[in-house]
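Translate structure to sequence.
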């Protein structure tokens, strides 16, 4: 079996979380209770747990002179999936924290990236590398 990650994170409620991850992003629903729900997040397991103490955003990360929210999570996508997701965000009036841009243009690690917030204010980043073999190259 290919390795997959599991990530558990805080959300404000189950209904808006399902609306974002299932309806907007297109993640398959997994198991759920009134306190948590699992999603198939591009082959990985996300577990969203209801909390009344959500974290404040911190834009302490800096990449190519752009401040990015830390912590954040997301997924590396192929170009077609990246474009489809971008269109889904636009169609569903999801505001971009960082609009889709190309980073490291013409350099090793060139990538398209975009940041959005889910309905609980969790930052997500989605990337598409021009050359996947450069994901970990310096």
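Result:
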């Amino acid at each position: 079996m290919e390795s997959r990650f599991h990530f558990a994170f805080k959300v404000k409620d189950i209904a808006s979380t399902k609306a974002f991850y299932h309806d907007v992003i297109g993640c398959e629903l997994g198991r759920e209770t009134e306190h948590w729900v699992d999603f198939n997040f591009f082959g990985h397991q996300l577990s969203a747990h209801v909390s009344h103490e959500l974290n404040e955003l911190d834009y302490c990360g800096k990449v190519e002179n752009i401040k990015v929210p830390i912590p954040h999570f997301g997924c590396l996508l192929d170009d077609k999936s990246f474009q489809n997701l971008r269109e889904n965000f636009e169609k569903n009036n999801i505001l971009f924290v960082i609009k889709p841009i190309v980073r490291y243009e013409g350099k090793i690690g060139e990538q398209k990236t975009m940041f959005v917030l889910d309905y609980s204010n969790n930052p997500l980043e989605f990337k598409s590398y021009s050359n996947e073999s450069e994901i970990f190259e310096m």
